[in-house]
Structure formats: structure tokens, C-alpha cells
## 1
Amino acid sequence: MLMPEPDRATMARRDEIVAALRAIVPGGVIDRAEGMRVYESDGLTAYRQLPLVVVLPETTAQVAEVMRWCGANQVRVVPRGAGTSLSGGALPLADGVLLGMARFNRVLSIDADNRCAVVQPGVTNLGISQAVAHLGFYYAPDPSSQIACTIGGNVAENSGGVHSLKYGLTTNNVLGVEIVTIDGEVIRLGGRHLDSEGYDLLGIVIGSEGLLGVVTEVTVRILPKPATARAVLIGFPTSESAGGCVAAIIAAGIIPGGMEMMDRPAIHAAEDFVHAGYPRDVEALLIVELDGPKAEVDHLIERVAAIARDQGSVTLRISETEAERLIFWAGRKAAFPAVGRISPDYYCMDGTIPRHRLPLVLSRMREMEAVHGLRVANVFHAGDGNLHPLILYDANKPGELERAEAFGSDILRLCVEVGGVLTGEHGVGVEKRDLMGTMFNESDLAHQQRLKCAFDPDGLLNPGKVFPTLHRCAELGRLHVSGGKLPFPDLPRF
Ligand SMILES: Cc1cc2nc3c(=O)[nH]c(=O)nc-3n(C[C@H](O)[C@H](O)[C@H](O)COP(=O)(O)OP(=O)(O)OC[C@H]3O[C@@H](n4cnc5c(N)ncnc54)[C@H](O)[C@@H]3O)c2cc1C
């Protein structure tokens, strides 16, 4: 995978850059290789690169000063939260400053009356729910990585989780942010109120993968904890019947708190690991959770059970206690590590399809297993049509990583082919960058890059991510291919 060519002149100025950062963030600069090693990759561990230097600011003023200095001196910057990104969004650059936001770890205020909290970007996702739990509140989007990932990373990736079907993704649960631009300007977008005047710049920043600015404060919506939650565990003889059940539940006007599906390999891996009591003789397992007032939940769960029977379920268990509900979820929540026990390595994909194409996509994936000679375990947010195929491989076997990547690309192309999109919640990063052309044409991409140029005209913030081709901002708007020759042939095209 090609990344922007490191700028030799910048690398030659390393001592000067380290000294400048030390003056801005005394005690917060790491420049020795052994200290920087932990930052060399994120959750997409197939790719590694030591940064030029790591800086760990503690205040917005320090972030602004770092950004202003880097902007003025044409030094690239890669923001980082907890480094759990699965798309390589926080992959460092050899000539770039890695800006770690881990020290921004305080909950600044909780406003129960207005159902919001103001937090620093390095607070973990779960940390927000823990901070407001004593008031009976929680923060709804719940990535499986919630124990580690930060809200700043969630904003950058527009992360989701099991409960996003009913409660939305990060973009539906963030009311405001403070960001610092590459020229050191501090901007506040949104706030404790609903909606803003003017363009929806908050909507643009959420999901911008660290390419537009560094998030230094987040105002999140907090919700009262539902009075009751119950789950039903439903086994099906085919993935078609499970997919049919998902569609029928939604068609009946029921929006579950979560609706997750696992295929046979994932069911077996999870059951072997967690002993959640999952049936082993089914092809697909659905976990459907209903939450809200008790009377409503008890009523809806019976309706879901009836729909499941109509759709051909072969096993069905409804949780009778909170402990049982948690056991139902334990296997799903541990599905990734469980798959890690049956394969030396796995590659977690993330694509979204229209729900009704689930059976087709699952059967096409089975055909692809034969083509690529690798197995897949499927775990996904069925209600959202958000797939997470886990491609099993062994990095120590020559060529297997490349085959896993080729398999992954084929799955994502299939998602787009059936009317879906390249990512549901993990972002584009470097992982899906070179596939952007399957979804967008040159003109679409040029429009998106114009937006990037408005924030970062010199392309210094997280370059090499998201866009398959670097464009100079001055060039945009005039991208005409004449006689088969691209303009600006000297620009790197990844
Ligand atoms: C086991 C596992 C399970 C996962 N499950 C889910 C899941 O269920 N749902 C889901 O959506 N994701 C999931 N993820 C992916 C990942 O946890 C999310 O993308 C998460 O939001 C990343 O947060 P982070 O703090 O680790 O960010 P990082 O990995 O450090 O960075 C991610 C991106 O955000 C940018 N960034 C980070 N902080 C800032 C900031 N303050 N300002 C500007 N840009 C910033 C980075 O430049 C990078 O582009 C999972 C990951 C793992 C390893």
C-alpha cells in the first residue's frame, strides 16, 4: 500500500521540529524509537510506521500552538485517540507529527436537565456512560471497543455499535465539538442546544477521520437508561430465514434496541470461548433486544417471537433475568477475540448493504471463500445491514495476508454492487482508500476534496487517508483528462 512519499527536507529538520514541540508541550514529547513503538500502528496492525515524533498535549492552547507551528512550517500531523481504528486512520507518517490526545481525559460537566455532558476527546466511550450512570443516564453509541476507544476517535470515525439501530450513530448523539484547525484556529460547532444556524459544519466534522481538524472537546447527548431490557436468542436453519426475520421485524414497525446476527463459524467460536448457551446446530443466530417500559418490552418480545416462528426459527429463548440477557450478549460481544482463538490472524471488514440483500451477499461470500482459499466468520449489525466479515488467515504463511486483502476488497466491491456502501462505522482510512473509486467518480471525489481544502489547503492533516489521489487544492475544479493524460503528473497518485 502506497503512502505519501516522506518529505526528505522535513525529516532532515527533525531536531528542530522536536525542539519546537518541546517548547510548546514541555514533558509531552516522545522522540526515541522505543518510546514511539507503541504508536506505530492502530487496530489495522498489518501496517506499521514509526512517526517522526509523538506529541501529547494537555490543553487546547497547546494543540492550537502545535497546529499553528506545524501549519506554518509545512509539517504533516496525524491525530490519534486510543489507536483502535480498524481502517488505519491513525497510521503514522515517517515525516509527520503524531498528535496523541490521550491526556484529554476529563469529563468537564454533566447537565442532566438538558441531557448532555461536555467531555474531553480522550475520555473513553464507556467512561462517559460510567460518569453519568449515577444519574440514571448513559451514552448510547456502544462500539465493541468501548472500553478502550475515545470519544474523539468516535467523532472522527462516526462510530456505531449494537444499539445504533434504535439510537443512532455518533452523529446522532453529538451536539457540539470544539476543533482546532491546521492554522491553529479554535472553532466551536454546535453546543448544548439542538441544531445550529447556518451550514451543518458539525455534520461535516463528524466522520471526517482527522482530515479537517483536531477535536478538543465534545458535547454528547446522554439518555435515561431504559427501565427494562430483554433479549431473545433465535436460531435459524439458513441465513436466508434469519435475514427474512430481520426484514419482517422491521416491517412490523418494531425497532429493537439491537438486532445482531452471527453465522455458524462465529456461533461456534463464540460458544467455545464464552459458553453462552448458543445452539450449535443452526446456520444463523439472531439476538434481538427490546428496551423501554416493562409492559411495552414484554408485549414486543412476544411479537418478535411470533414473527421468528413464522419465519422458520428452530430454537428460541427469551431472557427471563438480567443475568441471562447479559449472557446472551456475552458471546456476541466477545465474538472478535473468540475468532482470534480459531485463527492466527483475522481481517475484520466493514461494509453496509440494504438489509434485503443479506442472503445474497452471504451466499456470494461463501463462493468467494473457495476462490480465495480462505474462510470467513460473519458477525454483523443485522438491523442496520452493517456486515463485519472476519477473514481468517495466517500472516506467517507467505501470500495469505495479500489473499485476505484481495478477499476483503471483493467483499466491499460486492457491498457497493448490491447498493450498499464501503463502510458502516470503521471509516475509510488507508484500508478502503483505494476502493473509493468503486463508489465515487472523479467529480464526486473532487467535490469532497474541495471541502478538505477549505479546512486544510496544504493537505497537512492526516494525508494519505480517505482520498485515493492527492490533489493540490489549486488544481481542483479543473480536473480534465485530456488525451488520456492526467494534469499535474508529478502529484502522487496512490
Ligand atoms: C475489537 C474492536 C472492536 C471494534 N468495534 C467497533 C464497533 O463496534 N463499532 C465501531 O464503530 N468501531 C469499532 N471498532 C473501531 C474503533 O474502535 C473505532 O473506529 C473508534 O472510534 C476509534 O477510536 P480511537 O480513539 O481508538 O481512535 P484512533 O484509532 O486513535 O483514531 C481513529 C481516527 O480518528 C482520528 N482521531 C482520533 N482522535 C481524534 C481527535 N481528537 N481529533 C481528530 N481526529 C481524531 C484519527 O486520526 C483516526 O483517523 C472496533 C475496534 C476494535 C479493535
## 2
Amino acid sequence: MAGCAIRTYPTGLTVRSRGARSIQHSPGVEGPLDIRDGLQRSLIEMHIHTNPTSSDSMLEIPDLMTIAKETGLTGVNLTEHDKVLESHQQRAIRDQYPGQFINFGMEVSTDMGHMLAVGLTTYLPGIRRVAKLREELDKIGGFLIVAHPFRRLFDPVTAMRTGQKFELTPEEAAERMPVFKFVHAIEVGNGSNTPKENDFALEVARILGLPGTGGSDGHSTSGIGAFATGFANEVTTPEQFLEELHAGRFEAVHKTREGRWVAFTPDSLDPSQRGED
Ligand SMILES: [Zn+2]
Ligand SMILES: [Zn+2]
């Protein structure tokens, strides 16, 4: 089939996409861009903070669910800072949005940065150490994603503060940064990152053969759906969510200005989405 891209995932799953199309590129960009439809049987916001559980967020759950629906997302994975709602609160929220999938994850602050943990039902002692966090998740079949691994590392202010410029190549970062040994996946598309931080994470994930996720990391009504995680199969329960994550049947996706959900690749964002025009 002409123009059809076959993609083999790290776990061995092969997905035939609907065709890598060459689209008209913006002026100033060399050559045709290779952009393909992303997985989108389910589209899940993987990284989002709501008020009041995350005190730094102004986003209320009802607004999140409305915007998610309008954006075309089929579900959300709430990642409150070091917290997860009690099961009766979870049930009450799920009952209000029967057509939308809601998972209650957690963004855990650890000795190796922020981690998106899927499967925890409560904050556990010791998970501030990522090794312990992974150990606890393994006991319950949980899933661990490193969030925004390169945030602010390229920032001159960070270099000034640490007295050291971040000069690793993606190959060196993949090999030397211990955090990647503890995780199942890497957040490659984060709506609150700079394009450079996302590009670097995308390249590191490719080198390591680890799958990538996408999410907005939103703390307000803006930016929801900037990135999402597209799944090959339908995800409507927390059990299916974990099963599909462990099977690697997902990828980071984003919407083009024409409203098409595409896989996040080095070429897939147009200059306006990169803040370059
Ligand atoms: Zn974070
Ligand atoms: Zn966050």
C-alpha cells in the first residue's frame, strides 16, 4: 500500500498507520514534512492538575471535563501533586461524567524529578525515592512515566544557578541519566515545556526505545489538549488503561491547526505551534 507507514513498537506491536502524507509546508521550512495520523482510538490527557487537590491549579474538574470533550479527548488522567482522591470521591466524580474516562493518577515529586505514576491508590511512605516508587508500582502492576525530564535544563538561568551548562547529547543523556532506568515511558510532549525540551525528550525516548506520552501539564483552562496520548484500543476503565500502557499501545499526539490528531515527531509541529512565527 503506497504511503503506508508500518510502525513497530518496542513491545513488538506493529501498527499500520493511515499513511504518512506529505503536507504543504510553511514558507521557510525545507522539504516536505512527514506527518502521519496518530493513534486515536482513545485520546487521553495524561498530565493535568485540578483545584483544589493540586493547590497550584485554578482548573476545576467540571471545566476540565467540558473542555476535554470539546477538544475531542476521550479521557483524562488526573495527576495531582503527591495526592490522589479517596475512592468515594473518585466514584462521585466518575458518576457525573459517565461518557468520559477518568483515571486518578499522581505526579510524584522524587529525588529524580517529577514522575507520573499510574495505579497508586494513595501516597505511600518512601516514594519520594524513585527506586521505592517503582518498587511499589511493580507490586500492584502500576506504570511509571518520567515527566518533563529536561525542563529548564537548557535555561541560562539554570546554568547560572548550578554553574554548569547542560551539554549532554541525547545519546549521552539516554545513557547517563539514571532516571530512565526506572521508568516504563517518557513524557515527550508536555504542553508547559519549551519545544526544545520536548524535542530532546522525544529523541532520548527514540534512542532508548521507550514509548512516549503527551499531556498538557495544565493548571488552568488554557492549553488542555496541547498534547495528548493516543491509544490503539478503547480505554474506558483503569484496568484497561494499565493494560494498554504496559502493552505499549500508545504514543504522544497533538492536533494540527486543521484539527487533525497526528503523532508527535520531530517534524509534526508547525512553526506557529512551536512559537516561532
Ligand atoms: Zn511536574
Ligand atoms: Zn505537572
